[in-house]
Amino acid sequence: MKKVAMIGLDGMHWPILNKLFDWGVMPNLRKLAIESFKGTLRSTIPPESATAWTTIATGVNPGKHGIFGFTRPTKGYNDTRILNSQDVKYLRIHEMVAAQNLKSVCINQILTYPIKRFNGSSIITDWLSPEIKYSRDIERFAKGYHGPTLTKTSSLLAKNWNDEYSELSSRVDTTNALMKEIDWDLFWVVYSEPDHLFHRYYELVRKGNKEVMKLFAKMDETFGIVKDLVDLLIITSDHGFARFRHAIYINTFLQKLGLANSVKQEILKDLVCHRQVEEQKMTFQLPRETYRILSALPAPVELILSKIYKQLLKSDIKAEMTTYVDPKSSRAFAHGFGIYLKEKELTDRVVSILKKMQFVGGVWKKEDIYNGNNLEGFPDIVAMPNFSKGFALRSDTITPKSIVRRDFASHHPDGIVMIYKDEMKPRMVNAITVYDIVPTILNHLELEIPQDADGTAIKL
Ligand SMILES: [Zn+2]
Questions:
Q1: φ and ψ at 333, to 5 degrees?
Q2: Do residues 102 and 185 lie in contact, with contact meaning Cβ atoms separated by under 8 Å?
Q3: Tens digit of pLDDT for each residue in 145-162?
Q4: CA 189 to CA 438: how far, in whole Å?
Q5: Of 294, 270, 268, the residue nearest 284 (C-alpha)
Q6: In the chain, what are the helix, strand and coil shares in percent, each to the nearest 5?
Q7: Distance CA 280, CA 358 (A)
């Protein structure tokens, strides 16, 4: 019997993983890496988890599966909504396998809530669920699975390492038990911890902090088990992670072009200041009166704010003044890597202006970069920062300047991939794309590859 497993490490990047290997933190994965095809997996455009994992799991581009980011503005631009499994318009590999009468297990794949039922497919939903749900047939294993969800804050935020370790252990132990004890043809699991850790504690990871290393060592247990259970193993991330030196605020840029408006002061109920103390990020409210006074001051507001907070909080902080963009009154506004335009005739103009900016690594009209019938709700323009020059997106807010010099960690388009098969000759391969994972798995299981797949099976 042929068996395939895919183990995802969200946000993993080779420079970080090599450090973990050097420190002896993930010995099982290191051994696999030595024996595998391995290389860089270039993420999707945009390099965000929802888009990238859905692409990896479907083998088609976002125009066919319908997922751009994990939130999307509502029709009247009054609000944004979080996507769910119903928004995924293409079968994912765990569903394709089940539809062809084989058995699959799928854990923590983004946008699996609410569970779409397929005979032969067992699921534990992801961290973007309002609560963890699982298929009834695996209840015996899954009831001990505890994850962060939309309604339950991660113990990572509170830096409670003991709680985090025990919660992660519940996920790793459940995964390992399912892997060993039930019958499956495809096993698909994504560990979100690398991404969640890098977002919050990138420096602790880079310094090899003991508590953080314990978490990676726990995940490594799965790699020790899986090798003897499969004849094809794929390990991949959905994007990488790196430090950047320039934060881009696209809405500020659009505001300066006269296209985006910020929320009016009177309705600005919750102006948020980001306060950074060491590695931990905290968010707190700035009293509205203070905001009125400050907003009357000329730039550089940031500097003034940080001085005030330095006195107030007696700690060295970086503070920044941010206001929200008001999609309702704006002619154009950015949401993540996309720009929504109310007046479609502005499209060419905005594209050509952005193309000339040095902070932009690439800019496209949606129909020029994606193909398929599920582009509804996508932004009109997709813009990627110039990652190689140290630029990355910071947030959707409007700040005093559109580019701010600062040191921060964020998604990088270069992810990792390893493919392990018994008795294969290990080598470096850089030609594997996010579209090739699904055809490779289907090919190995001798199942049909969909005609409109965007990739091809990798020759092993
Ligand atoms: Zn991710």
A1: -150, 155
A2: yes
A3: 998 887 776 788 778 999
A4: 14
A5: 270
A6: 35, 25, 40
A7: 31
What's the token pair of residue 333?
């506004």
CA 1 to centroid of ligand 1, rounded, Å: 32
C-alpha to C-alpha distance for 213 and 161, rounded to whole angstroms = 11
Quick one: which H or E segment has residue 210?
helix 210-226
Sign of the Cα pseudo-torsion (27, 28, 32, 38, in order):
negative
Q: What's the 428 CA to ligand 1 centre distance in angstroms? A: 23
Question: Ligand 1 centre and the CA of 129: distance in Å?
Answer: 16
**147 CA from centroid of ligand 1 (Å):** 16
Structure tokens at 365: 């009209």
Euclidean distance between CA atoms 40 and 46, whole angstroms = 16
Most distant CA atoms of the chain, gap in Å: 71
Expressed in angstroms and rounded, the spacing between residue 346 Cα and the centre of ligand 1 is 32
Structural contact between residues 272 and 322, judged by C-beta atoms closer than 8 angstroms: yes
Q: How far apart are CA 106 and CA 390, in angstroms?
A: 36
Contact 164, 147 (CB under 8 A): no
Residue 123 CA to ligand 1 center (angstroms) comes to 19
Q: Phi, psi at residue 184, to the nearest 5°?
A: -150, 160
Strands of the 240-248 sheet, one edge to the other: 391-393, 240-248, 403-412
- Residue 398 forms beta bridges with which residues? 323
Q: What is the pTM of this model?
A: 0.88
Structural domains of the chain, ranges and CATH numbers in brackets: 4-239+413-444 (3.40.720.10), 243-410 (no CATH)
| pLDDT tens, residue by residue, 3-41 | 999 999 999 999 999 999 999 999 999 999 999 999 999
- Going from the Cα of 239 to the center of ligand 1, the distance in angstroms, rounded, reads 6
CA of 235 to the centre of ligand 1 (A): 14
The Å distance, Cα 10 to ligand 1 centre, comes to 5
pLDDT tens profile 324-346:
788 888 999 999 999 999 999 99
- Give the distance (Å) from ligand 1 centre to CA of residue 49: 4
Exposed / middle / buried, residue 440 (Cβ in 10 Å: 0-12, 13-18, 19+):
buried
Check if the beta carbon of residue 321 is closer than 8 Å to that of residue 245: no
Dihedral in degrees, nearest 10, Cα atoms 431, 434, 439, 443: 60
Ligand 1 centroid–CA 54 distance in Å is 11
Structure tokens, 200: 């919050």
Residue 201 dihedral angles phi and psi, to the nearest 5°: -135, 45
Instruction: Give residue 148 CA to ligand 1 midpoint distance, Å.
Output: 15
CA dihedral 17, 19, 25, 28 (to 10 degrees): 50
pLDDT at 418 over 70: yes
